[in-house]
Amino acid sequence: MLPAIQANDIAKRYRLGQNAGASTLAELLSATASAMVPGRRSKAPANGGQDFWALKGVSFEIAPGEVVGILGENGAGKSTLLKILSRITPPTRGSVTYRGRIGSLLEVGTGFHPELSGRDNVYLSGAILGMPRADVRRRFDEIVDFSGVEAFIDTPVKRYSSGMYMRLAFAVAAHLDTDILLVDEVLAVGDYKFQQKCLNRMDATAHDGRTVIFISHSLIAIQAICHRALWLDHGVIAADGPTAGVIARYAGTDHASGGIARDWPDADKAPGNAAMRLRSARIEAIGAEPGAPLDVRQSFAMSFEYDNLRDGAIFNASLLVTNEEGVVVFNAGPTEEPSAATIGRRRERCVVPGDLMNDGTYRVTFEVWEEGELLLSVPDLLTFEILDNPEGRFGWYGKWQGVVRPRLEWTSEAIL
């Protein structure tokens, strides 16, 4: 079977600080107008007109009916790739081959004319996507009903809120008979209920056999909808394969200080003092392969090894776990009173039960106390990610609120 999309060595270069990088008519007109402003023409670019390669030789094939998620940090090249696939901007090098009609939603209201009504823009957007007017008319009521803007369908879209704009734009792209649907993180503009509606629609679209490419920072949405994932990192493909495996590799990388494991082979360079030296720290999923990702249902262990350099010392180790907002999730230490220890290597280990912590990024600070005084503190010693689990969400893909999310015993029964 021939691929629906075939990308061959796609590269995209932008000329920072210079007008030569304009690749669309709008960019060229903007650059020309800027150069005509008095005093602008003589100014040299602050960065000397350096080249920036947003993509650096990206190649892949996507089969018809495949649902592919593209993930990566901000600036990785995700949106640039989608703009090239949507033929909004050409690649500097390489080529893309398509088989089928493409529909895309990359920005709020892409292709909409602000002076036209919502009704007129539905037909205009359909025409841009290459749909016959009869096909648009056949799906019109379904599109408007999905968007939820029935009361404003004959109002110029320039009076729409950004949420209404996005609702109608997504409804058009999702309901017209395109073979390939490209969707960027624009879904983040909508409210919770409409996000759920959009994701459910994308899931249904995929089951209809259409090819879907979906960019999102929501790993749970990609995990629930996409069978395959591409991880872009600084303009290159870092991983390509089944979604679970790619997400595991992405989440296991060191996105911040720390990481899930630290070792100090040289004691002189290890954190500590004359009384003790920290030699290693690590986080591991219990009952899983080494380096396996953590998810909200899985127990994991945090362990710390240090050299006790003073005979008879009574150390009281503790750890502090904070979330992305800096909120302390918990502060824990030994459950029994510590006793005097002999000189040598010691290990502190604690187990965090599954179905307790929410998904997100966490940082661990390790501390050692002695007789009520702080002997050692290593802030942000470890950094780890807890992934969500799509089971038990019943079709909802939004962020679960709360610092923790315990799995509680719950009953539901009729009482009348």
Characterization of the model:
- The strands form 4 sheets. Strands 5-6-7-3-8-9 form a 6-stranded mixed sheet, with helices on both faces.
- α4 packs across α5 and α5 packs parallel to α6 (192-207).
- The longest helix has 16 residues, at 192-207.
- β8 and β9 form a beta hairpin.
- The chain has 8 helices and 18 strands.
- It has 2 domains: 64-250, Rossmann fold (3-Layer(aba) Sandwich), CATH 3.40.50; 261-387, abc- transporter (atp binding component) like domain (Coagulation Factor XIII, Chain A, domain 1).
- 22% of the residues lie in helices and 31% in strands.
- It is an alpha/beta fold and 416 residues long.
Order of helices and strands: EHEEHEEHHHEHEHEEHEEEEEEEEE
- The end-to-end distance, rounded to whole angstroms, is 57 Å
Number of domains: 2
The CATH homologous superfamily of the largest domain is called P-loop containing nucleotide triphosphate hydrolases
Tell me the strand percentage band.
Answer: 25-35%
Q: How big is the Rg?
A: 27 Å
**CATH architecture descriptor of the largest domain:** 3-Layer(aba) Sandwich
Count of DSSP E strands?
18
Category by helix and strand content: alpha/beta
For the largest beta sheet, what order do the strands appear in spatially? 5-6-7-3-8-9
| Overall average residue pLDDT | 83
CATH hierarchy, class of the largest domain = Alpha Beta
Looking at the structure, the CATH topology of the largest domain is Rossmann fold
Unreliable stretches, pLDDT < 50, 5 or more residues? none
